[in-house]
Design goal:
By secondary structure, this protein is of the alpha+beta class. The protein has helices at 13-21, 46-54, 56-62, 104-115, 118-129, and strands spanning 32-40, 67-73, 84-89, 94-98. The protein has a 4-stranded mixed β-sheet, with helices on one face. A hairpin with a 4-residue loop joins strand 3 (84-89) and strand 4. Helix 2 crosses helix 4. The termini are far apart. The model has no long low-confidence stretch (mean pLDDT 85).
Amino acid sequence: MPRKPKTIPGPSRLSVILAHLTQEPRPHLPNLKSLHLTYAYRNDHFGARHFVKEDLPRIRYANPTLDIRVDKKLKTKEEVWKPEMVVELRNGTMHKLDIDGKWSSTIFHDLMDLSAGSWWQKWKKERAAAGEPATPLPPSQKAKTGAAAVLP
């Protein structure tokens, strides 16, 4: 017979994942038909990579029939190209979102503005009335000190 643990176990891994997938606002995107994201495999396009890791699973969970394609392309130091997100709406229009140099939360906010519909506008108004942001804010950057403050 196994011993009783002396500490109270924390939440299971599955419950933590499920809590992340169902956190508010749930990204229900009724106007969105497909989403195509292209970014560098490594060493660049950090906002796009974090968007794929943090927000794309939530979007997939809320919209299981959505066509989502992610292309991770190899990029050398000499190559210069920007990440891109191509969004196709149900009415057939295509939009290219500029995601270069943006935080993942900003990319999520832009996608929601484009394709979420009236419920998203209502959510933003409710949050603004409560004095809170519509989506969690990105972490603030610390002020550089020492030698880092003078380096570019």
